[in-house]
Amino acid sequence: PRGGAPPATPAAAAAATHYVKVVDAGGTTKYVAMDKLVAEAKDVVDELKTTLLKKLDDMRAAAESGDAKAYAGLKTQVAEAKSKLSVAETNLADAYALVTKHGYQGAAPGAAPGAAAPPKFVQVTVPGKPPTYVP
Questions:
Q1: Strand 122-124 and strand 29-33: pairing?
Q2: What is the pLDDT of residues 87-102, one digit of tens each?
Q3: Which residues fall within 8 angstroms of residue 67, CB to CB, at 6 or more apart?
Q4: First CA to last CA across the chain, in angstroms?
Q5: What letter does residue 92 receive in the DSSP assignment?
Q6: For the purposes of burial, counting CB atoms within 10 Å of the CB of 86, is it exposed (0-12), middle (13-18) or buried (19 or more)?
Q7: Is 14 helix (H, G, I), strand (E, B) or coil?
Q8: Residue 97 burial (CB < 10 Å; 0-12/13-18/19+)?
Q9: Angle at which helices 34-65 and 10-17 cross, to 10°
Q10: Neighbours of 28 (CB within 10 A)
Q11: Helix H or strand E segment including 97
């Protein structure tokens, strides 16, 4: 072809030409290149896990200090964070499936998580106490 050499592999060609329409929770639409899709989905999951762990730490601190009002507010925030994380993990699994369907294997090593994946638990540690796990 004129204008340059073709991509080195069919997977690279597929990744270079496929874009996916992504609508975030706020309703913002953007188009993401196939090779960036899984990375972006992972970033969202990681960010939400970090947020959830921070809220759980804050909730534990509120409980230990006896601040019932803060604890109740954080309990609601933790439930919302868990819900968002669940959706993000589903979106990540969907991203893996979509990338695999289009033959792009470079997005992530290993097998993609499936619908039958075990539930995810977050470890909560309190100094001097054994760790607990929260779904």
A1: unpaired
A2: 999 988 988 888 888 7
A3: none
A4: 54
A5: H
A6: middle
A7: helix
A8: middle
A9: 70
A10: 8
A11: helix 68-101
Token output for 10? 């069919």
- pTM equals 0.61
Q: Are 37 and 107 in contact (CB under 8 A)?
A: yes
Tokens of 12: 């690279």
Residue recorded with tokens 């792009």: 104
SS3 call for 11? helix
Cβ-based neighbour number of residue 56 at 10 Å = 21
- The residue type of 31 is Y
- Token pair of 116 as six digits: 């039958």
| Full DSSP string of 36-79 | HHHHHHHHHHHHHHHHHHHHHHHHHHHHHHT-HHHHHHHHHHHH
Rounded CA separation 103/116 (Å): 22
| CA–centroid distance for 117 within its chain | 14
Length of the chain in residues, anyone? 135
What digits encode the pLDDT tens for the residues 42-86?
999 999 999 999 999 999 999 999 999 999 999 999 999 999 999
